[in-house]
Each structure stands twice: as structure tokens, then as C-alpha cells.
Amino acid sequence: MKIFLDTANVSELREGVAMGLVDGCTTNPSLIAKEKRPFRPLVEEICSIVSGDVSLEVVATDVEGMVKEGKELAQVAPNVVVKCPLTRDGLKAVRRLSGEGIRVNQTLCFSASQALLSAKAGATYISPFLGRLDDISAVGMDVIRDICQIYRTYGFTTQVLAASIRNPLHVVDAAKAGAHVATLPFGVLEMLIKHPLTDIGLKKFLDDWAKSGAQL
Ligand code: E4P
Fold it and tell me: 155: domain CATH number?
């Protein structure tokens, strides 16, 4: 399973890349706004840091606007994937943009039925939002499982990108369900690394080594 970072923060992206763990990046208008930087230089920097796919989202809501913005965003760098919301116009935009060879990540997906339509429209990625479903007492992971099953059954090539991930269990369960990608906030990547028994075990090894007086 690929790991993407769900951030527009270049320090987090540089650190993730230095760890060798970042296969791509997803952004959204909220994440971009948080950085308080002019849009174009920010996204150009992100696309130069990350060698894998970088999702940049349109803000238009009508099909013509989404197609226009999508074409502009696709010019930023060759690794850009245009993000369009899963609306009626968003589905039309996926069809139009993918027909012109522009890859689309369809975002704000909350059901398997939406994901089926997105695959038929030609999306490269579908982004079901796990955490936001869990927040309203629906089981986000069930949606991921259903989408993976449907795509496998019919041989759709659309990749399932588990999004709105809040904790390490979301990542493990998405991997077990067969999601192609999980996009994580930087904090969740850090949580994946940590285990108290690793820290305790390392301390004990080093204490024993120091007491023995041995040298490497
Ligand atoms: C996905 O691409 C979105 O940027 C993201 O995962 C949304 O997550 P949130 O629900 O934590 O805002």
C-alpha cells in the first residue's frame, strides 16, 4: 500500500521524504489555506519535493469551471493529479478531464455507490473519507471494504485512496481491506512509528551495553 501525506506543509513533506516513506501527497483548500502562502509558489514547491502524485483541488463547483481549473492545475507539474468533488458536475468533470489525459482524484466520497460512479467516469483515484464517516457514527472502513470489493469484482483500475485518516488502526485496516493508498496527516505517520516496547527495549539494550563496558 502506498503512503501519501495529507498536508500542504513543506517542512512535513521534506521530513517524510527524508524518511523515505512518502509515495505522494494530497492537499485540499483547507490545508492550502492553513499555510498562508501564495498558491502557485506553494504548490510548485510541493510538487518539487514529492516525486509521486500530488493532488491539487479545484474550487469551482460547475463543470466548466472545474475543467478550466483542472487544466490549469495540471500545468503546475507532471506529477499533479486534479482533485474534483464527488458531485454531479464533479463526475462530468472527471469524464472530461480524464478524456483529455488529465488524471483525477475524486474527493469527498462517502459511499460505495458514489465510488462506483466515479470509477465509471474514469477517476484515477477515489477518496473515501473514513474519519468523517466515523465522526457521524457510520463505519468508514465498511465503505472502504465495499469499494475495494466492487472494484476488484469488475476490474476497475481506479485506485482506492483511504482519506480522512485519524489513527494508526485506520491505516492497518485500510491496508487489510486492500486500499491502494492511505493518505495520512504527518502526526499519524509519527504514530505509526512509535511503540512503547520499542523504546523500553532499546533503553534496556543500551543500559546493559553501557554497564558491560564492551566496545563495538
Ligand atoms: C483527502 O484527500 C483530504 O484532504 C483529507 O483526508 C481530509 O481529511 P480530514 O477529514 O481530516 O479533513
Answer: 3.20.20.70
C-alpha to C-alpha distance for 207 and 53, rounded to whole angstroms: 44
**pTM confidence score:** 0.96
Q: How many residues does the chain have?
A: 216
Domain that holds residue 150: 2-212
Residue identifier of the C-alpha nearest atom 9 of ligand 1: 164
- Which pLDDT band, with edges at 50, 70 and 90, does 50 fall under? very high
Catalytic residue among 68, 83, 194, 204: 83
Cell of 48: 518539487
* Domains contained in the chain, number: 1
Spell out which residues line ligand 1, taking CB within 6 angstroms. 6, 26, 28, 107, 127, 129, 131-132, 163-164, 183
Q: Is 83 a catalytic site residue? A: yes
What confidence tens digit (pLDDT) does each residue in 83-100 have?
999 999 999 999 999 999
Cβ within 8 Å of residue 140, ≥6 positions away: 128, 129, 130, 131, 132, 133, 134, 164, 170
